[in-house]
Design a protein that fits this description.
four-stranded mixed beta sheet, alpha/beta, 8 strands, 2 helices, Immunoglobulin-like
């Protein structure tokens, strides 16, 4: 007599593994910050690269014939340099920086204690920065951005973007 419950058990295991994998990817996408220290968030193409559109399976798609066209070459403009903020002695120094839209701020922990730079509104969060570590964030929109150290909330600063 054949045991019919084995394929069902196998399907339950596959479902469990898939659920754990998707939950992990969901958590990574939630907790990944928007700054340079964040984890990469992968799209569906990274997980399902071999999915095939059955409507075009087996048919070749003609490629366009290249034509010579002149295009203007834009002149390279360098982004504004990053302003630097030192984190030491339980202070951000300078406590307030002013930059242009598109500019960035680089925070460096020059002290011996672990700190963070965390936006009051959740726009960025550096995570824990140990001595010598840095975090950079680019500000594309004008405004005033208050921030603090999540470990030592009395440490505050402001980024002003013109």
């Amino acid at each position: 007599m054949r045991d019919l419950s084995r394929p069902l058990k196998r399907k339950k295991i596959y479902f469990f593994v898939l659920t754990v994998f998707l939950a992990g990817m969901f958590l990574i996408s939630i907790f990944a910050g928007s700054g340079s220290a964040s984890l990469p968030v992968l799209g569906a193409d990274a997980f399902f690269p071999l999915m095939v559109d059955n409507s075009s399976f087996g048919r070749s798609t003609p490629s366009p014939t290249p034509t010579a066209t002149q295009t203007a070459t834009p002149t390279a403009t360098s982004p504004p340099p990053c302003k630097t903020v030192s984190i030491a002695d339980f202070n951000f120094s300078p406590a307030s920086v002013t930059i242009k839209a598109g500019g960035c701020v680089k925070w460096t922990n020059n002290g011996s204690f672990t700190h963070t730079t965390t936006s009051d509104t959740g726009i960025w969060n550096s995570g824990s920065l140990t001595s010598g570590q840095s975090f950079t964030f680019t500000f594309n929109s004008k405004g005033t951005y208050p921030y603090f150290c999540a470990i030592h909330p009395s440490m505050t600063g402001t980024v002003i973007v013109n």
